[in-house]
Amino acid sequence: MRKTGINYKKRKKIYNILANTILFLFVFFAIAPILWMVATSLMTQNEIVTGKYTVPSHFENYIEMWQNINFFQYFKNSVIICASTTAVALIIATLAGYAVARYKFPGSNLFGATVLATQMVPGIMFLLPLYLMFIKIQETLGIRLINTYPGIIIVYSAFFIPFSIWILRGFFASIPVELEEAAIIDGCSRIGAFVRVVLPLARVGIIATGIYIFLMAWDELLFAWALTTSTDVATIPVGIRLYVGNYQNRYDLLMAAGCVTTLPVLIIFFGLQKHFITGMTAGAVKG
Amino acid sequence: MQHRKRRKKYKPELIKKEGLFTKIKKNKLAYLLITPAIIGMIFIHLVPIVSGILMSFLKLNQFTLKQFLKAPFIGLDNYKAVLFDPTSTIRSGFLDALRNTAIFGVICSVSVICISLLLAILLNRNFKLRGLARTLLMTPWVVPSFVVGMLWGFMWQNDGIINRVLVDILHILPKKPFWLTGPMVLVAIIIPTIWRQVPFVMLMFLAGLQQIPDEYYEAAKIDGANAWQRFRHVTLPMLRSVLSIQILNGIINYVYSFNIVAMMFGHGAGFPGKYGDLLMTNINRNSFQIWQFGTGAAATVIVMLCVMLLVAVWYKVFQDDLVVKDN
């Protein structure tokens, strides 16, 4: 009844205006802090302290931040560690995720449950023993794992594998088995069918998982603080703290470094946003 | 779900024992494929967890650190120090952290879910700039959490932008409050956490909303349901599986919350104070600053048991809403 008539249309219009207002209020809250970070990164230290803001245009911060501390080294370390972690974890998780989705083998349920259970354990539970284990390994076997790339890459990869298996499992399960069977009948081997048929179909899911692993690794600081302390392997969250603290208080440079740190993940995320959103939501809705 | 399946599967295996071997043989490739994952999980998950639990029974501090698992065994003393010994400083810090984390977790979970659901519903309409709005709403989630902690820590400062806007420009508050010390700390850590978590949960709700067929709403409208009734009887039930997963995510995320808080206070070196210390920052500080690894491990085990209990409760409540589509 209400559907026809001017009253309904009017209400609809009011609702839409109200909805848009609320929505864009939230958009403002979402981006205002980020805009403030960009703005302060273009101010002088003096402007920040006194609060006498002018038009932010002090682009020199973006040059000085690389000279003030060896930020490039930290940035490079983060890129190397996160990219390697993503590659290693993604390959291992793809194989395992496929196995869990396709085969009902003795122990497959146990494996699935273990994968989920690892998510309930806090990072610090691993960190304390791993830290001491790595010291012990170095003493007895002479293999250095603390403050080395392989050490942190191994830890990160293993850390992100269970969750990745869980997301990928959903994708592989959604690909019809018949396609593989058809490929096998046409003369493909099982592995050939996996590489030629399944992988291309699961591409979106694999890319989404890869983005997720990279974002998580880029974001990780608990392990980084303990396992990468020397400048040659330390990641950004370890290094970025040097701008503010005991020796100096350079919030302008800190914010510039914050922008530089956010930029790569922002580009990756928005460049591949379509894949990520279809990927993550498909996996999430499937459970 | 899992129980039912297991019962079905085990019966034939018990009757035909050799069947298991042929089954394992038949699935050789599957075992080969999960081997790397299993090796990783044994060395980086299983071994550390087991030794972590062992560590909680050892007197492991800066003097005995090098002995690792050969440190003196002291039974439940670490647990006593964390939970029962009224003179222990670790206990009072831990209880503060437990209280703060509980408040923090409840407020964050409820607000994140409400705000995300509202935004998802508002986004799930046809309007100009919809793509732009969604993209902009997503950005906080992309900012690394340590940058979030740093940025908000900077903004909450006494002469920071938030106080300047609230006091000097809008005159909402009479004088500048201290956000980073005293009881307001909890507010200062809750808001950035919500700010960063909302986009992701919103995205999940949006995906859930898009799965609801329009016909359901049409049918409800024909039956005379108003907007609230449509939300209550169509939208919410259809979102239950997304909701349940997000509640689980919330429990784990907020109890184990670390990055933002740690980065906000002295960039890992500071102390959020007794009103803002969370479980993870508390354990991390006790372990890596005063080298009390034994009590740290005990506290971690206690927290982990609490989370498992919460997850068990969660499972009991939402059991029926989990749509697990297995092939």
TrEMBL record, chain A:
Residues 75-272 form the ABC transmembrane type-1 domain. Belongs to the binding-protein-dependent transport system permease family. Keywords: Cell membrane, Membrane, Transmembrane, Transmembrane helix, Transport. PANTHER family: INNER MEMBRANE ABC TRANSPORTER PERMEASE PROTEIN YCJP, MALTOSE TRANSPORT SYSTEM PERMEASE-RELATED. It comes from Herbinix hemicellulosilytica. The keyword Acyltransferase does not apply. This is Putative membrane protein. It is a multi-pass membrane protein.
